[in-house]
Design a protein that fits this description.
With 241 residues, the chain is of the alpha+beta class. It folds into 2 domains: 144 residues, no CATH class; 84 residues, Immunoglobulin-like (Sandwich). The strands form 4 sheets. It has a 5-stranded antiparallel beta sheet, with no helix packed on it. Strands 1-2-3 form a 3-stranded antiparallel beta sheet. Helix 4 runs parallel beside helix 6. The chain is globular.
């Protein structure tokens, strides 16, 4: 790895032991930023800053060198982990202006076309871009650095009618399970859906509270129960009184 003024600026792509020659490149450092962040955040952030400096996105609304969607997506992917301010806003404004953002309302999907003139959106490019969009600073690293020892012992939700229904929230607080079902498109909004919850900590009567405060009794047996929810984009809570 090559350092300048305390900042990582390149990493070896190849080493020739015969010639004792190191072939270093900034790309060798920037490509694995997402994977370096939870392990060597100092190195990852140095590489990300090098990416942003090269593009001019730190202080310019018209960045350079991002017409290639692979380069732009890599920067969008990494930026979510390190900043949530003007830099991220400028980058996403550029993405929206440049790469054909499209809502497919029937499918309930948002994608970029990336000016590739292809019949279907690129899955990997869109997945990486969206990872950067939803990520807040440090959130990706936190998954690995703040390990919850009971994370495999809590309730498990299965049987979601995806893609007709998606869960934007499935969160266990230790005493209550919070679920937020979202419809794939407006024609599904307000309909009902069912799903399975297993590994609840106790049997007996639990209560499902809807977004308007209405409650429904739920019988839990063997740690399992079937829930019926309104697909309305609002939070439902399952807990035992």
């Amino acid at each position: 790895m090559t350092w300048e003024d305390g900042q990582a600026v390149a990493i070896d792509l190849y080493y020739d032991p015969v010639l004792d020659e190191h072939v270093a490149s900034p790309m060798g450092l920037t490509a694995p930023v997402w994977y370096l962040a939870p392990q060597r955040r100092d190195v990852a952030e140095s590489a990300w800053r090098m990416e942003t400096a090269t593009s001019g996105i730190l202080d310019d609304d018209n960045p350079v060198g991002l017409r290639n969607p692979n380069v732009a997506v890599m920067l969008a992917w990494h930026t979510g982990e390190f900043t949530d301010g003007p830099v991220k806003s400028r980058l996403w404004d550029y993405m929206d202006r440049t790469f054909e953002p499209t809502w497919d309302l029937e499918r309930g999907e948002f994608t970029f076309g990336f000016c590739l003139d292809e019949p279907h959106p690129r899955g990997q490019l869109n997945a990486r871009a969206m990872a950067g969009w939803v990520c807040t600073p440090g959130a990706w690293s936190q998954i690995f650095s703040e390990v919850h020892p009971d994370r495999f012992d809590g309730p498990v939700v299965t049987g979601v009618d995806f893609p007709r229904v998606a869960l934007s929230e499935a969160r266990w607080t230790g005493s209550a399970l919070h679920l937020t079902p979202h419809p794939q498109n407006p024609s599904i909004a307000g309909t009902r859906t069912s799903l399975q919850v297993d590994q609840l900590p106790s049997d007996g009567r639990w209560w499902l509270t809807g977004p308007e405060g209405e409650t429904t009794a739920v019988e839990v047996s063997g740690g399992s129960a079937t829930l019926e929810l309104s697909v309305d984009g609002q939070s439902h809570r399952l807990q035992q009184r």
